[in-house]
Amino acid sequence: MNKKIKTEAVDHLFEAVLTLKSPEECYAFFEDVCTVNELLSLSQRYEVAKMLREKKTYLDIAERTGASTATISRVNRSLNYGNDGYDMVFKRLGYPFEEK
């Protein structure tokens, strides 16, 4: 865990997120909390991570998501050297990706 982000305010935000019970509630909350571009950037990185786990090429990912190769590379670095957050969620959602 990155100690730079571990603050009381971030704890409060995560506690709020954990109360959300449906996609509709998520839309309402995240549209209030994030700008449209922030939300689209988060969703793009998530899609990039899924496609990387599906063994798609950078070119295919860039074409399908509009992500830059720099963004794809950053997401790939998170998948390989991060805190395993993406893989935890993928596993919980039942995605059949290989273990890293």
Automatic annotation (TrEMBL):
InterPro entries in UniProt: Trp_repress (IPR000831), Trp_repressor/repl_initiator (IPR010921), TrpR-like_sf (IPR038116), YecD_YerC (IPR013368)
Pfam families linked: Trp_repressor (PF01371)
Top-rank taxon, per record: Bacteria
UniProt-listed PANTHER family: LMO1763 PROTEIN, TRPR-LIKE PROTEIN YERC_YECD
NCBIfam families according to UniProt: yecD_yerC
Protein name: Helix-turn-helix domain-containing protein
Source organism: Enterocloster hominis
Lineage: Bacteria, Bacillati, Bacillota, Clostridia, Lachnospirales
